[in-house]
Amino acid sequence: MPKNTKTTDTAAQKNKILIIDNDLTIKAMLEDMLRIHGHTTILHATNGRDGIRLVKEHAPDIILLDVVMPEMGGIGTCQAIRKMDMPVRPSIIMISDKGDKDAIVEALENGADDFIIKPVDALELIARIKAQSRIRDFYHGVYEDKKNLETILDIIKTISSMLKTNEVLSTIVNRVADITAAARCSIVLIANEDVGYVLASHEKPEIKKIKLDLNKYPEIKEAVKNRRPVVVENIAKHPLMAGVRDLVKDLQKMNELVLPIVWEDKVIGTIFLRTRRPAKCFTEKEINLCRIISSSACQAIKNARIFEDISKEKDMMKTLAVTDSLTELYNHGFFYTRLEEEFNRAVRYGTPISLIMMDLDDFKKINDSYGHRTGDHVLKEVAGLIKKLVRKTDMVARYGGEEFAVILPHTNIKGAEEEAERILAAILSHSYAHLAKETISMSIGVASSPCKKPITNFGDLVNFADTALYEAKRSGKNKVVVFGQK
Q1: Each residue of 201-238: pLDDT tens digit?
Q2: H helix count then E strand count, the chain
Q3: Which of 23, 122, 168, 395 could form an S-S bond across to 407 if both were Cys, CB 3.0 to 4.6 Å?
């Protein structure tokens, strides 16, 4: 090939070359040789110190370094560059008019990768640059592999330590978006053949469970169908998008990557990426990296879901332990626990506490006339009425059978009596859905601490309220009796 023939070399155009030489004639000659062979990004420094500065600022791929220079010579400059902390080391080709063995050995032992003797032959220079480019590409690949491995390990460690599904999903989309410089990264849950849900998106973190019509996303359907990554270059013109061309017409020069998230041979979701890359689409390494992350994401999502299910089950068990299954009020056991706590608190701070005990009148007649299922419906309605009438600070419990109790912290006897009267009136006036014309009444006993009679513990308060309730029953029912008023 003639020396003055310009060639187009894509690999050459990628290289950033720094010439460090104080001889401007040699510098011009080298630049001509490089440009003729497609090298367009060329930097120049006339001395070692400026050369080191340019290395720090621009991270060149290849350095053409003259051995003989004033102040800091080529060997000193080479040593200084090799001491720099750089992700990928630049290739250094030293140039000298001395071609003896000692000069070559000295250069190589002090960090040079290659050696050229003046006068420089263009073809030899380009051949040596190509050789160094291949070596540098190898080191760059090793660096990328190391970086990707570190990223994978970091992501796996991070998402494995998280137990909330939302945190796991958010971490995945944000990290994958950072790695690929994606304009959009989302995780889509596959509900069925035609429906998906966006569970997380780095572009819009507030998005949660947005429904998608998968018929408008043929790339997602393709990934789900074949359980393989789908790459779509230039979305607006890709054949796969022909059926939705009107929907993607504004996505010129955008690319997509859809990675299936597979669990036990079933696609449960996808990682959906969109990037603006006019020059290139997704590399094989990026696809493989995202595939590994998607596999880790699947297990993390499963683990998080399992934890949430267990947590919900524990919460449910705790609720069941203190709740009456029929009325959904607190049960007899929890009533005593709370009453003891509230009574001790009232004694400690010198505040009043009251207790209302209630028993539906002649409830056996309802069960006998309508059956126990209707009786249960009535009990549920009564429980709902009582809950609506009491304050948020009061606690309502099903004491047993057709008996109910209300704990009233910070409430004196007058306030408790008024609340009991409201409950009695509401129960009596209510129309019950499962009864014909019958009305329901109840007998109510009220006690409070402090009281005319000494109360030493919460049990005394229960006994006094129960005594008042018994008096209400004995004296005609359908009334409120306050302990200690007679």
Answers
A1: 887 777 667 888 999 999 999 999 998 889 888 888 89
A2: 14, 16
A3: 395
